[in-house]
Amino acid sequence: MLARQVLRAMPRRSSPGGSSVNRLFSTEMTVREALNSALEEEMKRDDNVFLMGEEVAQYDGAYKITKGLWAKFGGDRVIDTPITEMGFAGIAVGAAFQGLRPVCEFMTWNFSMQAIDQVVNSAGKTYYMSGGSIDVPVVFRGPNGPAAAVAAQHSQCFAAWYGSVPGLKVVCPYDSEDARGLMKAAIRDNNPVCILENELLYGVSFAVDDAVLDPDFTVPIGKAKVMREGTDMTVVTFSKMVGFAMEAAEELAKQGISLEVVNLRTIRPYDRDTIINSVMKTNRLVTLEEGWPQSGVGAEIISFVSETAFDYLDAAPERITGADIPMPYAQGLENMCIPQVPDIVRVVSRMCQGK
Amino acid sequence: TMPRSASACRRLTPALAITFSCSAILLLQIFGAGQNPASLGAVMAPVGSMANIGVRGAMCSLPASGRVGSARVHAVETSADTKTSTKLDSETAASLYEDMNLGRKFEDATAQWYQRGKVFGFVHLGNGQEAVSAGAIKQLRKDDYICSTYRDHVHALSKGCDPKKVMAELFAKKTGICNGQGGSMHMFSEEHNMLGGFAFIGEGIPVALGAAFQTRYKKEARIDEKADQVTLAFFGDGTSNVGQFAECLNMASLYKLPIIFIVENNLWAIGMNHYRATAPSLGDQIPHIYKKGPAFGMPGVNVDGMDVVAVREAVGEAIERARAGDGPTLIEAETYRYRGHSLADPDVLRSAEEKERFAKQDPIQKFQKYCLETGLLTKEQMDEIETKVDGIVQEAIEFADESPKPDKSQLLNNVFSDPKGFGIDENGKYRYENPDFVLKSAAAGL
Fold first, then answer.
1. Is the separation of the CB atoms in B264 and B331 below 8 Å?
2. Which residues does chain B have within 8 Å of residue A149's beta carbon, measured at their own beta carbons?
3. What is the pLDDT of residue A6?
4. What are A173-182's pLDDT values in tens digits?
5. How far apart are the first and last CA of chain A?
6. Looking at residue B411, what is its pLDDT?
7. CA B445, CA A343: separation in Å to the nearest integer?
């Protein structure tokens, strides 16, 4: 099944650079533990931080991200809501207007479509509309994108949709370091932040060093991370696809192709400098995402690079995306809809011919 | 916590008094029917009146000042006393018994094959809720519509969808009712007018309303003056808090649409208990979803969802109203699900005591007893039906297992009604016609 494939594909370390950098890895931590510990520490640090969403309290979270928090902090700070996305997203926004720092969970980001007016119009635009007088320090979070055999209505990726809205910040953690750091940064940020997690990554374990365990560890929003340095091609990607890109990089290295993997971490505002610097070095660009191709994240990145660094490109940039169809239920068809490692290897090889 | 002495209260309920006051209301309603929706609105019984003291079970709002109270309870006790009130004949009883058994055995088989790795993803089973499906749907015509949520297998089967095709859909085979593209949560059938199968609760209700709307439209616009199809919209207790529920109740009343909203209140929305999620109406101790009907201008009916005879009668009356052009009804059927929310739900929040108590209310056993007592069916006839259903389910599994998986070339089917929407390639041919187009994916070779 897809989940097992993904787990096997996950690399065990998240260090930048290559083997020349030695870091002291002391702990293994799953993405779930990373998110949970980050939430707990932020709630301890600041009484204004509270959680709300469906099943977040007594059920310990539909995906167990908020496990144990209701027991620790009680029903006043971890709130089970009725099934009323538009309503409770609005409550979160209104509470944030008044200085609280809610973390509002959508059971999956698909359900945010029932509340999108609140996320985009009330959260995203208010600071602007109020002329800078009312800020909205709200965090919306939840799993995003395809899972395994959950069919069309549960499998959509929302990175491009929310990433197109000025006034929102949109982040996509990949590993445990990203998860902990971005969660803390999001909660501490005075702007509305959407955290697009990934269900299949929740159970994946990554090595983290001591700095990540610090209660004040944050990852800056708007800064990408070069997961693996390379010289022949840049792949810009985020979330689960980072792991696939890393595995593809290993395969490509055997063919003599050196792939540089850029983990965006933030979709909006995305790290233009890192991308440009990478393209200036490698001269080839491919973007990689699970979402739909039209008007996707890759479309934006490629446009930007063409506008800014066209002279540095030795080949036309391409995008690897999910298939342009609603997600089918059947496994064989679903696998065809999501980029796989052999797809990435094939495309990069082809683009590097003649190099 | 919530009052939990439901079964005790049912026995203590003064059945006669309720029957009397309910018939009085029914009479008033019959005379009052056909007026504009506003006059059918109930006057809420004053705070503190007897009517508002209630636990799960029979409850009645008594009308005040002579106006019609249209929130009422429909309770048919399944005992020998009610032989005279049943309108069932043996044939109908047999069909109901078969349908409920089909629902139960099909869902059990689905669970089994999920554990064995042949069914995937999110699967939500309807064990325990068969009486609502059979009672409501079996009396519909083929051209009537139903719309459901992700807990849709039993509804699809009751509506007449082929169990082989439903199982094949769960097994993700190309012979499935949606060619393997929809899955458990997305059962659709144009032939049987099963409108889905939706993942987000609440989103099916406007769709159902649309079916009711097109019936009325066809009639009013004289496209088909005889159009009198009705639509049943099924959803749960959690859904009664979703905005779309309120929006649809309002519009159904406003446009007087032939729709019946059926709330399958099984007390739990994943791990959220109904009493933690829904506020009671003013003056009540516990929430009653059916009371929201009158607020929106339609009758609200409470019925024991474990009693297929009662459900059938309550829904039957609502269907007659709707077909006659008298508008919508809200029916709250109190039921219970014997399995977790989905096959992935550890189901630890529901107490063993509660599960045991409701296990004793098993709708199939209840109906069995009822049929024996009233002489509608013999034990041998019921055994025969059960054997027949075992055969149907077994056949469905075999069909599903032996069916082929969807071809890779099916990937691009059914995105647009016109598959040419994928455009033209370099050779001037439609892209979807090029077999390579679909095969340009690593997984095509996997």
1. no
2. 120-121, 172, 183
3. 47
4. 999 999 999 9
5. 37
6. 81
7. 11
pLDDT, residue B409, reads 76
DSSP SS3 for A163:
helix
Q: Is A85 a catalytic residue?
A: yes
B199–A323 C-beta distance less than 8 A: no
Contact B443 A340 (CB under 8 A): yes
Of B199, B269, B412, the CB nearest to A153: B199
pLDDT band for A290, please (50, 70, 90 cuts).
very high
Q: What is the model's pLDDT at position A136?
A: 96
Query: Which residues of A touch chain B, with CB atoms under 8 Å apart?
Result: 1, 54-55, 58-59, 62, 80, 82-84, 86-87, 110-111, 113-114, 148-154, 323-326, 328-333, 335-338, 340-343, 346
Q: Long-range contacts made by residues B342-350, C-beta under 8 angstroms, separation at least 24?
A: B342/B122, B342/B123, B342/B124, B342/B125, B343/B111, B343/B114, B343/B123, B343/B124, B343/B125, B344/B122, B345/B270, B345/B271, B349/A58, B349/A59, B349/B268, B349/B271, B349/B273, B350/B268
Residue A141 DSSP SS3: strand
Q: Which residues of B22-36 are buried (b: 16+ CB within 10 A; e: fewer)?
A: beebeebbeeebeee
pTM of the entire predicted model: 0.82
Q: Which residues of chain B have pLDDT under 50?
A: 1-70, 75-86, 446
Contact between residue B356 and residue B338 where contact means Cβ atoms under 8 Å apart:
no
Model pLDDT for residues B64-82, shown as the tens digit of each residue: 332 233 455 554 433 333 3
Angle at B49 between CA B44 and CA B51, to 5 degrees: 70
Given a cut of 70, whether residue A294 has pLDDT beyond it is yes
Cα angle, residue A46 at apex, residues A40 and A49 outer, rounded to 5°: 70
